[in-house]
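Lab notebook, bench 4. Still working through the backlog of constructs that have no structural model yet. Next entry is a single chain of 234 residues. Request: give me the structure tokens for it.
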Amino acid sequence: MLVNDHNNMHQILDLTNFASILQVAEHYESVVATDVSESQLKLATPHPKINYRHTPTSMTDDELVELIGGENSVDLITVAQGVHWFDLPRFYSVATRLLRKPGGIIAVWGYNDVIVSPEFDAVQYRLHATTLPFWKYPYIQHIFDSYEALPFPFENVGMGSEGEPLKLEMPKTTSFEGIIRMFKSWSAIVTAREKGVELLPESLVRELETAWGGSDLVRSVVYKAFMIAGKVRV
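Model written out:
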């Protein structure tokens, strides 16, 4: 999650996407990035504006609130591609305590599709179909459904609401290596491999590379994203 303090612009961001943390740091004076995994934190890119903090699930709500900055202390909480994995009642309770009243905002977003080209997309959709038995349900269903059924007990601020997420298109320039790295990060790919099933064999990687246009080609792609934002109801 990402949390911003009104004066010091503190931010706390769940590390589902290192790139988004670095982008946030371009706009705020201080970023506090949290994750339940110490090993994940060790992979994070050092940045003078970002403080990485370990928040294991064993922490109490009071400890978490104190670590982040205290009650009624932050202006914005955001979660990128991760809130569907959370203990939502607990997370929303902590978020409500942390957000400044009035005006504090919580925003969550994710994506569930990447549009490249008809040739490449046909191959990647075939890959995705093989992953379906290995995703963790019901959590991943929220991503498949574009957060349309995600509980979100906050007041609408006009940027997506419970049951009606704001649909977005996020353009990005990436390499073939980058898109393959994204596929390899899918939890379904990892889970299948742990069970002895390789969903991304070299033959499929080569097929994807051909459809991409070669390993050296850098392409513009579009992430199909969605967002819900709100503030504490009073």
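Notes after review: Residues 1-16 have pLDDT under 50 and may be disordered. The two ends are 22 Å apart (CA to CA). Flag for follow-up if needed.
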